[in-house]
What we know:
Blueprint: E1 6-14, H1 22-36, E2 40-47, E3 57-58, E4 61-67, E5 69-70, E6 79-80, H2 82-93, E7 97-101, H3 108-118, E8 122-125, H4 136-152, E9 155-158, H5 161-171, E10 178-180, E11 199-203, H6 212-217, H7 219-225, E12 230-234, H8 241-250, E13 257-261, H9 265-274, E14 277-280, H10 289-296, E15 301-304, H11 310-316, E16 319-322, H12 328-336, H13 338-354, H14 358-380
Parallel strand pairs: 1-2, 1-7, 2-4, 7-8, 8-9, 9-10, 11-12, 11-14, 12-13, 14-15, 15-16
Antiparallel strand pairs: 3-4, 5-6
Helix pairs in contact: 1-14, 2-3, 3-4, 7-12, 10-13
Amino acid sequence: MTAPLRVLHAVTLHSPTGAFGGPVRVALNLAHGLRDRGHEPRLLALADGFGPVPPTDVEGVPARLYPARRVLPLGFSGLTSPALLARAGRLVRGADVVHVHLARDLVTLPVALAALRARVPLVLQTHGMVDLSGRLLAKVLDALAVRRALRGAAAVLYLTGHERRDLDAVAGAPLPHAVRLVNGVPRQEPRPAPEGPPRILYAARLQARKRPRDFVAAVPEVLRHHPDARFVVAGPDEGELPAVRALVDGLGLRERVTFVGALAPDQVLDELRRAHVYVLPSVDEPFPMSVLESLSVGTPAVVTVSNGLASAVREAGAGRVVADASGLAGAVLELLEPTAAGESSAAAHALAGSAFSLDAVVDELLAVYGRAAGGQARSQA
C-alpha cells in the first residue's frame, strides 16, 4: 500500500461567511477526497470572523489558521499574517506536497515561494485569479514573485483554455507542467421536485462582477407570469448590497425578495434543494462552485455565456445559457415549465455525477501529485 501523502492546501482566507468564495470550497472538497483515500491533508489560511482563537479544523480537516491583519487597502490582497509568514518555511517542510491556491496576495505567494526554497513539490491552482492584468501592482507582483512561482512549480492546474493562455502570458513562456483539472463536487442525492410557489435563488458574493442587480432586475418579468414566485438573495456583501436593496425598493419588490445573508456550506445546499431555479448572472466566471453545487442536487441553473460552465450546461440541458442580463427572466420562465423543470433537473444531476465527479477529480489530482513528487526527487538527485 502506498504511504499516505501529507498535503498542505494553502488558501488566502477562511471565514464563517465564505467571503473568499470558491477556492476555499475547492480546497476543502479536495481535502475531503484525499482523506477518504487515506491521505493526510491540512489547510493553511488566514482566518477572519472567528474571534481571537481560530478553529483548529475546518469541516473535520486539520487547519492552521492565523488571524488576518490588513496591511494594505487592497481587498484580499492587502491581508496577511506576520506569524504565518514567519512559519511558512517550517510549515511547508512538514508536507510531502504543497498545493497552493494561488492569488496575487500576501499569503499564497509567500507560501509558494517558501515551498520552492524548501524544494518541496509545489502544485499551483489559480482558479482564474492570476489573469493577464495591466494594473501596475499586478505587474510588479508578477515580476517579483508570480512568474517565479509559475515557472518553478511541479504542476500548474488550470480550468479553461482562456486561463491557460493567461498563465502562459504571465509566466512569459508556455508552462510545460500545466494540467487541466476541473472542479469536482461530492455526490449528492437528487432533490425531490420542490413544492409550493416558484422559488428562484441567487447564492454568491454580492459584488459587481457577480451582477446581483441583474438578478433583481429580472424579477418583475417572472412575476408577470408567476405572481406568487419568491426570490432569495444569499451571500456575503462585497459592496453591492446597498445598491441591490435600493433596486428592490425602487421596483416595489420588498415583499418578494428575501435577503438571507452569508450562509454556511450546508445551508447553501439546503437553499439549492429548495430552489426551483438557480441564477448566477456573473460574467467572466471561470468555473463557479455554486453552479456545480446546484447541478449536484438537481437544481437547474441559469448562467451567462461567459461562464466557464456554460457549454456543459447547454449541451447537457442542465439549465439555460443567456447572452446577457436581458435573457435571465425568459430563461427562468422556461425552466419553470413542468416538462422542462423535470428534464433539466435530471440532466443537472447526471452532469454533476459524470463530468464533475469529485472521485474522478481526486484520481487525476493524485496522479499529478505522483508526477510532482517523482520530478522533485529526480531534480534533487
